[in-house]
Amino acid sequence: MIISESIRETREQVKEWKRQGLRVGFVPTMGYLHEGHRSLMEAARKENDRVAVSIFVNPIQFGPNEDFASYPRDMEKDAALCEDAGVDLVFHPDAGEMYGEGFSTYVDMEGLTKELCGKSRPVHFRGVQTVVCKLFHIIPADRAYFGQKDAQQLAVIKKMVRDLGMDIEIVGCPIVREPDGLAKSSRNTYLNAEERQAALVLDRSLAAGRKLVEAGERDALKIKECIAGEIGKEKLAKTDYVEIVDFADITPIENLEDAKNGEILCAIAVYIGKTRLIDNFIYRISECR
Ligand code: PAF
């Protein structure tokens, strides 16, 4: 497995694979890898001849009061996981390599990035799009793999690729959970034992909401109230948002039957102590119209 910190060397290697007619799968990450990332690598392994992973904690997607400095990092462990998952190339640049002196070009998007996480993290998606766009230039892969836990991020990346005519297929992969239901996240490491237990309220509250939808409830407000009510029962939890949006364009929806492609996204962000966690479910209400 090649580990490279250099843009030029990484791009040359991927181009060489492309010259040989090999299909390349790419998994962008911020490291501190877990089973969720591994599932993306495994999907990439199955569908491509070569797999590249980037490990870069991207400073420009964190707001001033967010956890950039404390975001967990463990390159040695990450490299071992990549090796074990059959990865061929790890791109691990430092911030100077990615954002050299005078960097001032950003990728931004109207609409879609202003809902859900965009409300409480105003610079987040601009930073994500900019780094992902740059990574797609450095690693000109055939396919890139993203987890559905960050459902809004997945929708934003898909739209960016469509809007800018990028030649890459975006593949969304299912959420990977701990045996007790907590969605895998590098940020779970911030939780102490009591908070770890309290964090189960995310999965529990979403399950309650989903049950209502499955029973035929279509009023988004009632479903959101049910989820928020469940979260409210957990004393260590504080709701950032509970939202139901049309999954086609991430716009708020009142009646689930109105979803344009027949799919809704029910997404929540909850503080457990100081740790902000997100989770969601996607539900198909009807066949596409
Ligand atoms: O999902 C992540 O880990 C990050 O947002 C990404 C896509 C690697 C961009 O920094």
Question: What letter string, H or E per element, gives the SSE order?
Answer: EHEHEHEHHHEHEHHHEEEE
Shape descriptor: globular
Number of helices: 10
Low-confidence stretches: none
Strand content: 15-25%
Q: Overall pLDDT, averaged? A: 97
Q: Give a list of the ligands.
A: pantoate
- Counting DSSP E segments of at least 2 residues, the number of strands comes to 10
Q: Report the C-alpha radius of gyration, rounded.
A: 19 Å
- Tell me the span between the first and last alpha carbons: 46 Å
User: Structural class, from secondary structure content?
Assistant: alpha/beta
Percent of residues in helices comes to 25-40%
Looking across the biggest beta sheet, what order are the strands in?
1-4-3-2-5-6
Task: Describe this protein's structure.
The chain is of the alpha/beta class. It is 37% helix and 21% strand. It contains ten helices and ten strands. The longest helix has 15 residues, at 124-138. Bound molecules: pantoate. Residues 28-30, 58, 61, 128, 131-132, 150, 153 line the site of pantoate.
What would a concise description of this structure say?
The chain is of the alpha/beta class and 289 residues long.
Per-chain topology:
Elements: E1 2-4, H1 7-19, E2 24-29, H2 35-47, E3 50-55, H3 75-84, E4 89-91, H4 95-98, H5 117-120, H6 124-138, E5 143-147, H7 151-163, E6 169-173, H8 193-198, H9 200-214, H10 220-232, E7 237-246, E8 251-252, E9 263-272, E10 275-284
Parallel strand pairs: 1-4, 2-3, 2-5, 3-4, 5-6
Antiparallel strand pairs: 7-8, 7-9, 9-10
Bound molecules: pantoate.
Pantoate (PAF) binds at residues 28-30, 58, 61, 128, 131-132, 150, 153.
